[in-house]
Design goal:
The chain contains seven helices and twelve strands. It is of the alpha/beta class. It starts with a helix and ends in a 9-residue tail after the last helix. Keywords: Hydrolase, Metal-binding, Zinc.
Length: 294
């Protein structure tokens, strides 16, 4: 009888241990959580004109680039998202199309533009009416030149940029040509902060003031190419970025210096590719329309 009891208890102990082992094994199973697929965002890069910086030293303080000149690009971009189309910048004024090289008074720049924005959009099957939103990295004349074609689009603009636009400061400043965007009346004012364009983190206007009062960069997270940042004029060419140099004509130089730190911290956080919009080498290396970067 004693032997039976011992056998019974031994068997129960073994069963209990087996159950514990089974539960332990069950609890160590890894739970795989699939990340949601990125939205099917596409980015198209276009040539908005050419800029020869005859006096490159404007892009620095002191005599950093004294006596130097440099060929610059002037790109603009279309971002297609399942929920809409954003136009980022528009290039140089369209009055330049077919006119060859033009050197404004002062001789600091020689500029030209080969093609109109409407012709360029046709290459990807779009008309101006298809553009839902327009945003400028900033409102210097070389970024707003073809904007009046998009009067029906919602214009996303930072409060500080809009305040400057409506101030006395802009009058007589040759870096601005408000006539090139005078048809834009459907404004959405952004309260001097980042703005998630489609609400899913895939396309974000990054508030990076200093070059102008309400300057921006643009973050785009592409499903295949991954995250990238379009600089606006945070930098104008690679050497600017390497040396963290602020142009002497920036609206607010100390603010620009802080923006550079914030820009680099964000790029590092996102492990993002940087495309300097005016850097000719960057533009030539980029996939351009009518082919999309996906």
């Amino acid at each position: 009888m004693l032997i039976k009891k011992i056998t019974f208890f031994a068997l129960a102990a073994l069963l209990f241990a087996g159950c514990k082992e089974t539960k332990k094994e069950e609890n160590t199973e890894e739970v795989v959580v699939e990340e949601p697929a990125k939205p099917a965002v596409e980015l198209y890069a276009f040539d908005g004109g050419s800029i020869m910086a005859n006096n490159l030293n404007l892009f620095a303080q002191g005599d950093t680039y004294k006596g130097e000149s440099k060929q610059l690009a002037d790109a603009f971009y279309v971002i297609k998202h399942p929920n809409g189309i954003l136009l980022w910048d528009t290039g140089l004024p369209e009055m330049l199309v077919g006119q060859g090289d033009y050197t404004p008074e002062g001789g600091a720049f020689t500029i030209s533009r080969k093609d109109s924005i409407t012709t360029q959009l046709k290459s990807i099957g779009l008309t101006p009416a298809d553009v839902d939103m327009i945003a400028f990295s900033h409102i210097h004349f070389d970024h707003t030149g073809a904007a009046n074609h998009f009067a029906d689009a919602k214009w996303l603009i930072q409060q500080s940029e809009d305040d400057f636009l409506n101030s006395e400061e802009i009058k007589g400043n040759t870096f601005y040509n408000p006539d090139t965007f005078s048809a834009l009346n459907n404004k959405e004012i952004i309260a001097n902060k980042d703005y998630d364009v489609f609400g899913d983190g895939s396309v974000v206007i990054k508030y990076m003031p200093g070059h102008t009062a309400g300057h921006n960069a643009l973050f785009v997270d592409l499903p295949e190419a991954g995250p990238l940042v379009l600089t606006g004029d945070t930098y104008h060419f690679e050497q600017n970025r390497e040396d963290a140099i602020v142009p002497q004509f920036n609206y607010d130089i100390p603010q620009s210096e802080e923006t550079i730190k914030a820009f680099e911290a964000f790029v590092s956080e996102k492990n993002a590719k940087v495309w300097i919009q005016h850097d000719l080498d960057d533009f030539n290396a980029m996939t351009t329309a009518p082919t999309a970067l996906k």
